UniProtKB/TrEMBL annotation:
Pfam families listed in its UniProt record: CM_2, DAHP_synth_1
Any GO MF annotation of the entry: transferase activity
Protein name: chorismate mutase
Naturally occurring in which organism (per UniProt): Anditalea andensis
InterPro entries: Aldolase_TIM, Chorismate_II_sf, Class-I_DAHP_synthase, CM_dom_sf, CM_II_prokaryot, DAHP1/KDSA
Leader sequence segment: none
Keyword Transferase appears in the UniProt entry: yes
GO biological process annotation, one example: chorismate metabolic process
Enzyme class (EC, first level): isomerase
Keywords tagged on the record: Transferase
Enzyme Commission number(s): 5.4.99.5
Amino acid sequence: MHNHLQIKDWGLGLSGHTIIAGPCSAETPEQIENICQAMIKEKMIPSMFRAGIWKPRTRPGSFEGIGEEGLEWMEIVRHHLNIPITTEVGNAAHVELALKHKVDVLWIGARTTVNPFAVQEIADALQGVDIPVMVKNPMNPDLQLWIGALERLHSVGIHKLAAIHRGFSDAYDKRFRNKPNWSMPIHLKREWKGMEVINDPSHIVGNRAGILETSQRAINFGLDGLMIETHHDPDKAWSDAKQQVTPAQLRDILAAIDFKDTLQEEQPDQKLNDLRQAVDHLDDQLLDLLQERFSIIDQIGHYKRENHLTVFQPGRWKEVMESRTQKGVDKNLSQKFMKELLYTIHEESVKRQEKQLREPAKVIK
Ligand SMILES: C=C(O[C@@H]1C=C(C(=O)O)C=C[C@H]1O)C(=O)O
């Protein structure tokens, strides 16, 4: 696995959950000044200040970002808040300008992560530079593409890496602007040990009312921070007006969240250990039962081979699927879980049996 540096080791003095706040877009020096002042007034100083300088918009004609001059206004943030500044880069020219203006942390947006050419161009522009980079998930739920983008950066020597879950484009589910897929950051954390994932509820829900709930869910799942678009006067924002909150609202949201800790492996806890031992025991039993089931599946496979029958038997499968799903639902297991579990078991059964058909005959007890 690739070694990388976690946020606490980025040399920016950060610790605990990372809270990134600031406007969707930098608009004017007055706007940046006002946001800083409101953050100071509300005692709501985030871990990092975000501001979009170049905005990838769905259709031309919307505000596409203020460009380089907005980077000059980041001095206002440094002066008032003295916290790291982060912005999105979408190509090598953006990287060059962000580095020229000493942006502390870069992020790559979802529309860029989908394109390996663009990610590689950014990575090449960062060769030999020591700067942290956060990578938002691609528009589509493709874990390998997300990991691939992180790897492209890692291979040019960018080791200060983190990921951002901002949800996935879904043409049908109108509840979200970008539908969250909580398995995806969990899979990412499983595949890349220690990779931190910041949640971006603003782009997930697309309206300020849903930000608290989605933030809490992210924390419950074990995500490592929040990026929340914050503006002193959200309704007048030049982009994403509906989803931005004021610094006062951000303070209330953060105060309402029940922040959780991941258990440190070295902290033993008797109660938890006992429960985990019970789980270990049950898992052993589950495996014994699966082993027994597959041994009978093999015997059925042998019978099918002798009697020239196909391995897949739709009638029997339908009955197994329907009756077991119902039994599972009666035992308070979700229908989705039951179906996925049964599909997985069935797939393995037919694979084993088909393999038997290809093998030379052998006696199965
Ligand atoms: C085990 C059999 O073969 C296949 C596997 C099944 C299973 O895992 O339960 C069910 C039907 C078949 O598609 C069988 O025919 O009974």
